[in-house]
Amino acid sequence: MKIDKAAIKNEFQRHERDTGSSEVQIAILTSEIKALTEHLKANKKDTSSRYGLLRKVQNRRNLLDYLKREDEAKYAELIKKLGIRR
């Protein structure tokens, strides 16, 4: 599955040249997690992809914790916008 990272960056960036803010990284990781979850539903024995999924989930969790510490309002808005339950 191909993920349109440019569209995600345009939606979540803070300013025009922003490509690496926490919000952008979390949004990209969320779309990758969704794609990997769909892949694993069809390919249950693909353990290497399962490990990759766990790594992405942990990375997103760390970024979300950082964002919550730094700016709780942006954290709450991002959670609501992405539909993540936390």
What does this structure look like?
The protein has 86 residues and is mainly α. It has one domain (20-82): Helix Hairpins (Orthogonal Bundle). The chain has 4 helices and no strands. The model has no long low-confidence stretch (mean pLDDT 95).
Oligomerization? single chain
- Give the class-level CATH name: Mainly Alpha
Low-confidence stretches: none
- Gross CATH architecture: Orthogonal Bundle
Report the CATH superfamily. S15/NS1, RNA-binding
In the CATH scheme, what's the topology name?
A: Helix Hairpins
What would you call the structural class? mainly alpha
β-strand amount: under 5%
- Please tell me how large the radius of gyration is: 14 Å
Q: Helix amount, in percent?
A: over 70%
Overall tally of domains: 1
DSSP helical segment count: 4
Cα distance, first to last residue?
26 Å
Mean pLDDT: 95
Number of strand segments: 0
Shape: globular
Brief write-up:
With 86 residues, this protein is mainly alpha-helical. The protein is built from 4 helices and no strands.
